[in-house]
UniProtKB/TrEMBL annotation:
Full protein name: Ribosome-associated protein
One term of GO molecular function: translation release factor activity
Chain intervals for the UniProt region annotation (Disordered): 100-124
Classification via Pfam families: RF-1 (PF00472)
Biased composition (Basic and acidic residues): 101-117
InterPro entries assigned to the protein according to its UniProt record, in alphabetical order: Pep_chain_release_fac_I
NCBIfam families in alphabetical order: PRK09256.1
C-alpha cells in the first residue's frame, strides 16, 4: 500500500490552501505479496471495475480536516472492499415449487374466471 497526501478541494478556508489533508491510497495488485495467486484472481474478477488498467486499486478520502483521520478512513474502506471481494458465495440451489402453491394459484384463477363469467349477459 502506498499513501500520498494531497491538498483537499472544497470548503475549509485557509486550511485547505496550507494543509495536505486528503489521503490517496494506491494498492498494486500485481506486485502484492499479501495474497496468493487464487486470491489475486478472485480480487481481479470482483474488483475489475475499481482497478486501473495496471491493476492498481486507488482509494481517496478527504472527509476530515485531519490527515491521520482520513488515512484511518481510507484503510477501513480498503479492508472492507478486499474482505467483500474475497468472500466466496455459496451457489444457489434451485428448489421445486410446492404442489399446494400451484394448486392454490390455479384455484384462484378458476374463481376469478367464474366471477367474470357471472358478470356477462346470459345467452339465449
Amino acid at each position: 500500500m502506498q499513501f500520498k497526501a494531497v491538498r483537499s478541494s472544497g470548503a475549509g478556508g485557509q486550511n485547505v490552501n496550507k494543509v495536505s489533508s486528503k489521503v490517496v491510497l494506491s494498492f498494486d495488485l500485481k506486485i502484492s505479496t499479501a495474497f496468493s495467486e487464487e486470491e489475486k484472481e478472485l480480487l481481479l474478477a470482483k474488483l475489475e471495475n475499481k482497478l486501473t488498467k495496471e491493476q492498481v486499486l486507488i482509494l481517496s478520502c478527504d472527509e476530515d480536516r485531519s490527515q491521520l483521520r482520513n488515512k484511518e478512513i481510507v484503510i477501513k474502506r480498503f479492508l472492507l472492499i478486499v474482505e467483500g471481494a474475497l468472500k466466496v458465495e455459496k451457489p444457489r440451489k434451485a428448489t421445486k415449487i410446492p404442489r399446494s402453491v400451484i394448486e392454490k394459484r390455479l384455484k384462484e384463477k378458476r374463481n376469478q374466471s367464474d366471477i367474470k363469467q357471472s358478470r356477462q349477459k346470459p345467452k339465449f
